[in-house]
Design a protein that fits this description.
single chain, 466 residues, mainly alpha, Amino acid/polyamine transporter I, 20 helices, 0% strand, globular
């Protein structure tokens, strides 16, 4: 029996069931979920409020933990190995409000409009800008999926699993999860998988010496080891790209819509996003501390790949902690592959007017599922290319995400300031100031990195003046 039927009389249940059966199957599932939530809101006990909160959370935690994807884990590991415990610990704490601020806007936009991000841009700003935005997303998603399978295949190889076997297994798992589960079950299973992202936190207890003094010193001095350099700007951009990325905007807004959240649920979405942001930063800092305490000094040029970092980590803390790290890397790639593939499906279907819901059965949702499944297969295949520079590729993908982010964030801010779209829920002035400041900072960092590559001498002179 469906859970909502327990709250209704037999006659009421029969009437509601008849009405629901008139809807397409994807809308029927969503309507059943919303009905269950609406009936639950009529209860006023502490337990019922907790149950309601657990029902309504999901998109914010998923997007933030999936943001600590395999590419993110590798980036944080490389960051610690190159720069140690210093600049990037306080920097990641500053990223918490930035990530929350950006993603909170997608909660409001999705709950108010009941439309996905790609659909809103396409309809509000026309085919040209819609195509531009969709192109950014599809390219960035595909490149990011490559990093997920880098993490999965490298992590599984620690346990002697050939890369081709692990690639096939995890592509198949992602496809089955998306293809055969309705939204609510898909979300709950994804949240269960996401819990294992926390494995990096207890790994701190395996470190041979407490790092508290070094961490506190990083806040007191907050200096950049070796000063501002092209490598520092590159790694900074990579950390920005793995903290806020275009796919996150599309994923969370579409997830809010597919879940069926309304204006009344926005506060739950905000709390959901805050919890996710906090967990994301805690895990990121843990990874930087782990490699900053063990690998730092072995990777001054940023050329070590994650497999080499894992081997050095094992010599300092042991095989078992290294295996746990590898499992965390696999989980990070797995949960992100689930989220990013869904993001691609939602965005393309919204843009082209196809049916767009994880509630869709396979036969009805062919156009919804095929783009992301194709991207999964091709991305996994690329990681199997012999002698591919996977470590360099991972950082580069995060940098590319940072380059794409200002345009994506600009569209988001334009929509949040459109009274025809948002009504009274438009951004406040202080929110616009923060939003455009983030865009300005991203553009500045992109320009500095471009200058460091195009004219290192001029870059050196400019840095010397600062």
């Amino acid at each position: 029996m469906s859970s909502w039927k327990k709250h209704l009389s037999e006659h009421e249940s029969a009437d509601v069931t008849n009405e629901l059966n008139k809807l397409p199957i994807d809308l029927r599932y969503r309507a059943e979920d919303r009905l269950h939530i609406a009936l639950h809101k009529q209860k006023h006990t502490r337990l019922s409020r907790l149950e309601l909160f657990l029902m309504l959370i999901g998109p914010g935690i998923l997007v933030m933990i999936a943001d600590n994807d395999a590419g993110g884990v590798i980036t944080y590991a490389q960051t610690g190995s190159i720069f140690g415990i210093g600049f990037f610990i306080p920097f990641m704490i500053l990223m918490l409000p930035v990530a929350y601020f950006v993603q909170e806007m997608t909660v409001r936009l999705g709950a108010v409009t009941h439309r996905g991000h790609a659909e809103m841009i396409w309809k509000r700003y026309g085919k040209f800008w819609g195509s531009f935005s969709l192109g950014d997303l599809v390219i960035a998603n595909f490149l990011t999926l490559i990093t997920e399978f880098i993490g999965i295949t490298v992590g599984m190889s620690i346990f002697g699993i050939p890369r081709i076997i692990s690639a096939v297994i995890f592509v198949s798992l992602v496809i089955m999860i998306q293809l055969f589960l309705r939204y609510y079950t898909w979300e709950r299973i994804s949240l269960f998988i996401a819990v294992f992202n926390l494995v990096f936190v207890p790994l701190l207890f395996f470190l041979p010496h407490p790092q508290i003094a070094d961490i506190l010193r990083s806040f007191a001095t907050w200096k950049i080891p070796g000063g501002v350099s092209s490598l520092f700007i590159y790694v900074l951009l990579a950390n920005l790209g793995t903290t806020i990325a275009p796919w996150m905007l599309f994923f969370q807004q579409s997830s809010v819509v597919d879940k069926g959240l309304t204006k009344d649920d926005i506060k739950f979405g905000q709390r959901d996003t805050l919890i996710g942001s906090t967990v994301m930063v805690i895990v990121a800092i843990s990874i930087i501390i782990l490699t900053g305490s063990t690998v730092f000094g072995s990777d001054s040029t940023g050329t070590l790949g994650v497999d080499s970092i894992l081997q050095i980590f094992a010599t300092k803390v042991g095989i078992f902690p290294m295996e746990l790290f590898a499992l965390g890397l696999v989980e990070a790639g797995f949960i992100a592959a689930i989220a990013i593939s869904a993001s691609t499906s939602w965005a393309m279907s919204e843009a082209f007017g196809w049916k767009k819901s994880i509630n869709l059965p396979a036969r009805e949702g062919v156009l919804f599922y095929v783009p992301s499944f194709t991207a999964l297969a091709v991305a996994a295949s690329i990681t199997l290319i012999p002698n591919a520079p996977l470590g360099y590729l991972n950082l580069t993908v995060q940098v590319i995400a940072t380059i794409f982010m200002p345009a994506a964030l600009l569209f988001l801010l334009l929509l949040l300031n459109d009274r025809g779209v948002m009504g009274s829920m438009v951004n406040k002035r202080w929110q616009n100031i923060i939003g455009f400041s983030i865009i300005g900072f991203l553009i500045l960092m992109n320009a500095l990195y471009g200058l460091s590559v195009a004219d290192p001498t001029l870059f050196g002179h400019l840095v010397g003046m600062l």
